[in-house]
Amino acid sequence: xxxxxxxxxxxxxxxxxxxxxxxxxxxxxxxxxxxxxxxxxxxxxxxxxxxxxxxxxxxxxxxxxxxxxxxxxxxxxxxxxxxxxxxxxxxxxxxxxxxxxxxxxxxxxxxxxxxxxxxxxxxxxxxxxxxxxxxxxxxxxxxxxxxxxxxxxxxxxxxxxxxxxxxxxxxxxxxxxxxxxxxxxxxxxxxxxxxxxxxxxxxxxxxxxxxxxxxxxxxxxxxxxxxxxxxxxxxxxxxxxxxxxxxxxxxxxxxxxxxxxxxxxxxxxxxxxxxxxxxxxxxxxxxxxxxxxxxxxxxxxxxxxxxxxxxxxxxxxxxxxxxxxxxxxxxxxxxxxxxxxxxxxxxxxxxxxxxxxxxxxxxxxxxxxxxxxxxxxxxxxxxxxxxxxxxxxxxxxxxxx
Amino acid sequence: xxxxxxxxxxxxxxxxxxxxxxxxxxxxxxxxxxxxxxxxxxxxxxxxxxxxxxxxxxxxxxxxxxxxxx
Lengths: 401, 70
Description:
The complex is a heterodimer of chains A (401) and B (70).
Chain A: E1 14-15, E2 18-19, H1 21-28, E3 32-35, E4 46-49, H2 52-59, E5 65-66, H3 98-106, H4 112-116, H5 119-136, E6 140-141, H6 142-147, H7 151-159, H8 166-177, H9 183-206, H10 212-220, H11 226-240, H12 242-256, H13 259-267, H14 269-283, E7 292-294, E8 298-300, E9 303-305, E10 310-313, H15 315-319, H16 353-370, E11 375-376, E12 385-386, E13 393-394, E14 398-400
Helix pairs in contact in A: 5-16, 7-11, 8-9, 9-11, 12-16, 13-14, 13-16, 14-16
Chain B: E1 2-5, H1 15-19, E2 24-26, E3 33-35, H2 45-54, E4 60-63
Antiparallel strand pairs in B: 1-4, 2-3
């Protein structure tokens, strides 16, 4: 049956806001479990890491756990494969020292102060999206008009995609990133998208502006190849689209189902900041960061791991571990924020965390301020969840106010 | 209590200054941590410990000061 969709990989399975029961049962056997995530996923041993401390241990140790399938240390002693063009610049797949070289140049572009310069533009984008919600009337789909509509234009602002190119750019980008497409169609879309990015990079090299790409070529023009700059733009899109749309849609639903907590974050900006940290933990929309490869034999969480084994760290289970927090399955936005791993941990910690926090703060805040009577327009049990995506979310969220 | 930061380890996550802007800052040049208040008051100790635990790369450490400071 060629058209039958592949089963949802075990580590991405959820039931509404919670990790699926079969996933939880797995973690009953200890913080590290040998699994088969999907049929035909390969014959090397695969481990699912579900304990909070063990996840921090793996993500925090770039010496014993590699994220790269390429370069000098690849495949734990295996022969180094050449990094394909489409993988160039995707930082999460790099180990030090290549990772260090690229990340060092990117870090100053993502400081809290730099991100604040984008704030007025982000506010304007969110206002436009909420205008569209209001125009759509009752009911309006909060996913189409808000959760999925905000992140793309914000990333265009960050990267420096001219306003007139934005719709084309985002359409090509979605086609490029979409996984369900036919291979040839995806390749063609990828070509159009990567061609556009190559032209954007070339323009910035000639006339750098004040945006992210302009600053990068001004400060480090000679240290980046064009392919690296292009790849970094793709990385930002990969990291900033599904994760944010997932958080905005799922977070809105979680708040709508908890009206007392919704009122608290609506009326108090400090409560909103704390609330975002709790939503990040509780919702844990990224299923797992880049799989790690053990570089040497070791014992982890009581299990014997061999060099070359693959480890997948479960973000939702780590963030629901009682070792991190009491009553982990309860959403409570009044909690003191805990050191959750929703943005990862270690040297690959999300580069755009400051931007993501600001984007969520403005988005949730404006949504709730503008529509104080916001409520679901369908029964809560009819909400469909987005499962086949790099980040969890909701498919549609019809609301009224 | 004295705070030390390892700027080589710092990944520029900006977590520390989001929680404690009165103690931590971030360089505009390299995006890495800067210390505003290397020796915060005792009332800050718990908050600083919380931030040190959050740091993704363990770049923030706390140290007892010498006896004469106690």
